[in-house]
Automatic annotation (TrEMBL):
Name used for this protein in its record: Anamorsin N-terminal domain-containing protein
Biological processes annotated in GO: apoptotic process; iron-sulfur cluster assembly
PANTHER family documented for this protein: ANAMORSIN (PTHR13273:SF14)
SUPFAM superfamilies: S-adenosyl-L-methionine-dependent methyltransferases
Keyword 4Fe-4S assigned: yes
Keywords annotated in UniProt: 2Fe-2S, 4Fe-4S, Apoptosis, Cytoplasm, Iron, Iron-sulfur, Metal-binding, Mitochondrion, Nucleus, Phosphoprotein
GO cellular component terms given for this protein: cytoplasm; nucleolus
Length: 211
């Protein structure tokens, strides 16, 4: 099992759903408890109960979802946003999800690029695929009734909380009196050339860095 960068003393949440085999889930939890040690915390949460559990904001260093072997977990935008909320600043989310290899408007399954976009929209940064895509097992394909691939993706929470503030030092200089030199009557000045117009474009960048 990958260590997911988990170290002793950290708080880790393992999110599972109805597709997760019970024995595989127990095995994952046992390994996580070894990694976090006596000073750490491992919470096991069913995805359907994630909102009802009302976890406090910034509670976990690491969240794992869909990584239980045999799982075919699909993450909604609401679930991703909730996971981002309960991550601590600088914390990491690791998820595994089946994806479509081509765009299908009628499918509930995302493509890998749409899944990465959903993670970015939830507020995470440094979103990227972790490893080569894998084919689903026969049991996984039967569970979701589609021919898909499986991807592992990670995202990191920013090192600050959304809505946090800090005091800014402002330097205010006294303006000089307004000069009317060169003032002209509005009517004759209507023929004065208008100032140039500029076009502004906005771009979104996703930065990916190696672990």
């Amino acid at each position: 099992m990958a260590s997911f960068g988990i170290s002793a003393g950290q708080a880790v949440a393992a999110v599972w759903d109805k597709s997760s085999p019970v024995e595989a889930l127990k095995d994952l939890v046992d390994k996580l408890q070894v990694l976090t040690g006596d000073e750490g915390q491992v919470l096991v949460e069913n995805m359907s109960q994630l909102f009802r559990s009302a976890q406090e904001k910034s509670s976990f260093d690491v969240i794992l979802s869909g990584v239980v072997p045999g799982s075919v977990t699909l993450h909604s935008a609401e679930v991703l946003a909730e996971m981002a909320r309960i991550l601590r600043p600088g914390g990491c989310l690791f998820l595994k999800e089946p994806v479509e290899t081509a765009v299908d408007k009628d499918s509930k399954v995302k493509t890998a690029s749409k899944l990465c976009s959903a993670l970015t929209l939830s507020g995470l940064v440094e979103v990227k695929e972790l490893q080569q895509r894998e084919s689903l097992s026969p049991e996984e394909k039967q569970s979701i009734h589609e021919s898909l691939l499986s991807v592992q993706i990670t995202g990191k929470k920013t090192n600050f909380e959304v809505g946090s503030s800090s005091q800014l030092k402002l330097s205010i200089t006294k303006k000089s009196p307004l000069s009317l030199t060169g003032y002209c009557d509005p009517i004759p000045c209507l023929s004065t050339p208008s100032p140039p117009h500029f076009s502004v474009a906005f771009v979104s960048l996703v930065v990916s860095v190696p672990l």
